[in-house]
Design brief:
Blueprint lengths: L14 H51 L8 E5 L5 E5 L6 E9 L5 E4 L12 E7 L2 E7 L6 H10 L6 E8 L2 E8 L8 E6 L11 E5 L4 E5 L2 E5 L3 E3 L5 E5 L8 E7 L1 H26 L1 E2 L4 E2 L6 H14 L18 E3 L5 E3 L1 H10 L3 H5 L6 H12 L5 H61 L9
Antiparallel strand pairs: 1-15, 2-14, 3-11, 3-15, 4-8, 4-10, 5-6, 5-9, 7-8, 11-12, 13-14, 16-17, 18-19
């Protein structure tokens, strides 16, 4: 902005203030329009963000229910948790099975012959340790070949494929104990020595303390072996965690639907649908009492999303006459406020009559949750209408910043023009004033009544 210091000094008029008022009058309409547009775009962007958040939550809830892992929640109960515990993936068929824990999986543990002490020098060279089908090597140099050095070299090796080394001190001396980190018959420990002074060869003579063994479990009298005590695959989707072997004694695992968890999942979907409805009501409704309208009232993008969600949630899955093929059949209805309500008793009755109803109506290939998840995934994609709308609003906000910069430049030119014009006026008025003073002085010097002298 031009700096005004002495404008009006010649004329005695407040030309400085007049210029400032004229400049402000020139700026105000444009500034008011830009501020109004900026507030509107910011409000629309904020409202769109709240809608996007509600849609994201609904998408996640819908996609979390879709497919086999969604609503078929199962519990797996062991008749004797001191022998084994169990868990079941969603969708596993309910049923009971006999379980006999014949033996547990164990890790191979071996020990070397005794040495005088942990600090006793063993030797130098390369020690190669194997476990299962993998191996790694450590090198012991002069002055670093004690039993303790060897233990530390094994444990610290970045190539260690699964062997833990400790020192066992007993009456006969100190032994290096090697233990496979993984259980299973295939994970046996081996040691080989090469090079150096030959002293490491003493570590290749090993005494087995614990044999490597697989776990053996019988389910409905059929044997199943596992390298670990977490047994997967004997029944697809069922996991048994073996705690203690008890050969000859049979326990039971029971797989059942988790009704409470299933209802909670459906309730969560209802909550997310209501969350979207509430968000829409806040930003796209009209209050007849106050005359206030939401910033997205009549927005075509939002209206299209609302219509499609209503279409999906109001659809019939399967046969038209199926009483359980829609949301009301599952106990989900709309109240007077326009929000959904879940009747848990009705949902339980539907599950009692048709246990797989949620897998079909909500989570199936043509299910409501499946369709919602797919649609909302597209709506919230990076190149979607919502994303493009957000980008458009941000671009408009950036444009307002550029328009303000252009306004500042134009106002500077306007102010400079006013200053120039009023400076000329100031000079003219000053000149006229001087001329008037001169004439007044001359008239006052004239003789007679017109002058000041008699």
């Amino acid at each position: 902005m031009a700096e005004i210091r002495s404008l009006g000094a010649g004329s005695g008029l407040d030309l400085d203030g007049l210029v400032q008022r004229l400049v402000a009058a020139e700026r105000q309409p444009v500034e008011t329009r830009l501020a109004r547009n900026e507030a509107r775009f910011q409000a629309e962007l904020s409202a769109l963000g709240s809608i996007k958040g509600a849609l994201s939550a609904l998408r996640d809830a819908s996609q979390g229910l879709a497919g086999d892992a969604g609503l078929g929640v199962r519990t797996a109960t062991s008749s004797n948790p001191e022998r084994f515990t169990a868990s079941a993936a969603a969708g596993v068929a309910p049923g009971s099975y006999s379980v006999e824990v014949v033996s547990l999986a164990t890790a191979n543990k071996v020990a070397t012959d005794p040495f005088a002490a942990a600090g006793s020098q063993v030797g130098t060279g390369t020690l190669t340790l194997g476990v299962g089908g993998d191996s790694f090597s450590v090198t012991l140099a002069d002055g670093a070949g004690s039993l303790a050095d060897i233990r530390d070299a094994i444990n610290r090796s970045p190539d260690n494929t699964g062997v833990s080394a400790t020192i066992l001190n007993e009456d006969a001396g100190s032994r290096l104990v090697l233990t496979a980190r993984d259980t299973g018959a295939a994970n046996t420990v081996s040691v080989a020595a090469a090079g150096g002074d030959g002293g490491l060869a003493a570590l290749t003579t090993l005494t087995e303390l614990t044999a490597a063994a697989d776990a053996v479990v019988k389910v409905d009298s059929f044997s199943f072996s596992s390298a670990s005590n977490r047994v997967d695959g004997v029944i697809e989707g069922l996991t048994l965690d073996l705690v203690e072997a008890d050969p000859g004694n049979v326990e039971t695992v029971t797989i059942a639907e988790d009704r409470s968890a299933m209802i909670d999942k459906v309730s969560g979907l209802v909550d997310r649908l209501n969350g979207f409805t509430s968000a829409t009501n806040r930003v796209a409704s009209y209050n007849a009492d106050t005359g206030e309208a939401g910033v997205l009232l009549g927005d075509a993008t939002l209206r299209g999303i609302e219509d499609r969600i209503r279409q999906i949630t109001g659809s019939q899955v399967g046969a038209a006459a199926d009483p359980f093929g829609n949301l009301p059949g599952l106990g989900i209805t709309t109240n007077e406020a326009g929000l959904l309500e879940l009747d848990e008793a009705q949902l339980s009755r539907a599950l009692d009559e048709r246990p797989e109803v949620l897998d079909t109506v909500l989570a199936g290939e043509d299910g409501i949750a499946t369709a919602l998840g797919a649609y909302l995934g597209d709506v919230l994609a990076s190149n979607s209408l919502v994303a493009n709308r957000e980008e458009g609003l941000r671009s408009r906000l950036d444009g307002i910043g550029e328009q303000r910069e252009a306004l500042d430049r134009r106002i500077e030119r306007v102010e400079a023009r006013f200053v120039s014009q009023f400076a000329a006026l100031d000079g003219l008025v000053a000149q006229l004033s001087q001329t008037g003073d001169f004439l007044q002085q001359q008239l006052s010097n004239l003789p007679g009544p017109a002058g000041g002298n008699n």
